[in-house]
Amino acid sequence: MYQLNCAQKHVALATGQVNSAQHLLDDKMSKLGRLSTAVKERVDVEYKRILKQAEAEQNQAFAHIDQMIEQLKKQICDKSTQLKQLPLNEISVFVQGMTSNIYSSEYNL
């Protein structure tokens, strides 16, 4: 009988240790799950911040391009106006100068 009691106590002790270890493992798994969620949320926030910044930079670049194009269009309109106002004997020289400027322009399209 003494041996049976001893064995039962030993089994109860081992069961308690297993339950304790299982509780510890479950707790660690839960913490890992929360950590995973928190890290993913931080990554998502950072991603959205970077995306917003990139969109702002893109919009600035587009606005700058539009401004440059408008300036070039204005220059072309000014040249056209000048051309229309020239006397006939000055048109040839003006066109030659304008043509060479167009070909040497950094905005050669």
How would you summarize the topology of this molecule?
Layout: H1 2-85, H2 88-104
What does this entry show, briefly?
The protein is built from two helices and no strands. The protein is mainly α and 109 residues long. It has one domain.
Tell me what the structure shows.
This protein has 109 residues and is an all-alpha fold. It has one domain. It has two helices and no strands. The radius of gyration is 40 Å and the shape is rod-shaped. The model has no long low-confidence stretch (mean pLDDT 90).
Bulk shape = rod-shaped
Number of helices: 2
DSSP E strands, number: 0
Q: What gap, in angstroms, lies between the N and C termini?
A: 103 Å
- Class based on secondary structure composition and strand pairing: mainly alpha
Biggest pleated sheet: none
Q: List the secondary-structure elements in sequence, H or E.
A: HH
Give unreliable regions as ranges.
none
Q: How big is the Rg?
A: 40 Å
- Compute the number of structural domains: 1
Q: For this entry, what is the oligomeric state of its chains?
A: single chain
Strand content: under 5%
The average pLDDT score comes to 90
Helix content: over 70%
Q: Keywords, please?
A:
about 110 residues; mainly alpha; 2 helices; about 0% strand; rod-shaped
